[in-house]
Amino acid sequence: MDGGVIDGGWYLDVVGFARSTPWLHGFFEIYTDAGLGLLAVLAAVVWWRARGKPAETMAAALWVPLAVLLAYGLSNLVKVLVQEPRPCLRYPAVPTVAPCDFATDYSFPSNHVVFAVSAAVGLLLVAWRVGLLALVLAGLVAFSRVYLGAHYPHDVLAAVVLGAAIACCGLLLRRPLTTLVVRARDGRLSRLVGTAERVS
């Protein structure tokens, strides 16, 4: 798959913008990974607070890491099937902020964005205020992947669709997950999933 035929021009425009904004390089180089860490912290906070809330809320909180793992695994499968080369390999003469990855580290879709969006949409299903913040964080991660030169825009867009679709499956799984939480609250896992009463 030749991604440059799809939206190579947009990729070059963003990379050109990156070259003209060197004062942003450091931020995006750090944030592209740190943003995932921030989303993981938000997920942990939401899980902790859900320990004293109804079982349905805890089920939604537990779905967040499950959605991320499922989406990430599916994303890697798609990478192997599509085998799209990184844009920096198609445009070797175009300087990028981030160094070019190995040729076998395929581009489509973006794992970073799949992680970020599946987490953000999952968090949105738990608590909308936290979810909105998570969506902003995920949006910055998505932009950073093209800004750094690691992905085409369509890699990011596909990752957004994949991550959001997997996270939304939590709506279909809410009832069985809630049943599992109710059972777990009566057993040894109560410290992890809490009780119906708010804990201090």
Could you provide a short overview of the structure?
The protein is mainly alpha-helical. Helices cover 72% and strands 0% of the residues.
Shape call: elongated
DSSP helical segment count: 9
Report the oligomer.
Answer: single chain
Distance between the termini: 54 Å
Q: Which residues form runs of ≥5 with pLDDT under 50?
A: none
In the CATH scheme, what's the topology name?
Vanadium-containing Chloroperoxidase, domain 1
Percent strand equals under 5%
CATH architecture designation: Up-down Bundle
Q: What does the largest sheet look like?
A: none
Number of domain units: 1
Structure description:
The chain has 200 residues and is an all-alpha fold. The protein has one domain (3-184): Vanadium-containing Chloroperoxidase, domain 1 (Up-down Bundle), CATH 1.20.144. Helices cover 72% and strands 0% of the residues. It has helices spanning 3-19, 25-50, 55-82, 87-90, 111-124, 128-147, 153-168, 170-184, 190-193. Helix 2 runs antiparallel to helix 3, helix 2 (25-50) runs antiparallel to helix 6 and helix 5 packs parallel to helix 7 (153-168). The longest helix is centred in the middle third of the chain and has 28 residues, at 55-82. The mean pLDDT is 88.
